[in-house]
Amino acid sequence: SLSHITAFSALKALLRDLLSMSPEQKSSWFPAIEIERAFAVFRRKSVAENADPLSRGAAMGLVMSLCRDPLPLSPLDLLSRIPVARIGDGLSGLIALARHELTEEEAFVSGLDQLVQALDDGDFLAALPGMRAAFAWLPPRERGEFARRILRLHDKDHFACSVLTGGITAASPEHIAGLQYLETQAMAKLALWGVT
């Protein structure tokens, strides 16, 4: 939810400011905050299986954006360990707090593409609304650049990025994907009956 992201963003801003302060300023203005301990808490949160996927993604995104120490697992590993219907929540947290670090990393772009390609139709339908919401955290220009990278991965860079970012029709993408799923199921049934 927006309140989760807002809270993590505020914590990120506080930690970023603390990192830029001299040790004297830190100890006089914020003596109770131990930066390394805060990062340790966020690292643990990112790998806690029982934590909300949005919080896990936001915690990892916060650490990625401020701390150069290795993460307990990669962002793609995190997303692959989240239930399919909640992948978008984890991705929202990651993008909201570490969009520059993630969207500029080719390994993340191609890995996310592979993760989505590996989903079957039902899982794709379950993940689609959350993933659409996650990409809404990117400003239009960055969303377009991300789309261009995905198109390049599939040798479709001759298409405009609006193919992936623009509205398709009056029907929602979720509705279209649902119809494609039903069509696939119907074709499979027809094949079972010998009608092709």
Q: Multimeric state of these chains?
A: single chain
Number of helices: 11
Question: Structural class given helices, strands, pairing?
Answer: mainly alpha
Shape: elongated
Low-confidence stretches: none
Give the % helix: over 70%
Per DSSP, what share of the residues sits in E-state strands of 2 or more residues?
under 5%
Mean pLDDT rating: 88
Compute the separation of the termini in Å.
46 Å
Radius of gyration: 20 Å
Largest sheet: none
How many β-strand runs? 0
Helices and strands, in order, run as HHHHHHHHHHH
Structure description:
It contains eleven helices and no strands. The chain is an all-alpha fold and 196 residues long.
Features:
single chain; 196 residues; mainly alpha; 11 helices; 72% helix; elongated
TL;DR?
The protein has 196 residues and is mainly alpha-helical. It is built from 11 helices and no strands.
What is the fold's blueprint, element by element?
Layout: H1 2-20, H2 23-29, H3 35-47, H4 53-66, H5 75-80, H6 87-103, H7 106-117, H8 121-135, H9 140-153, H10 162-165, H11 173-192
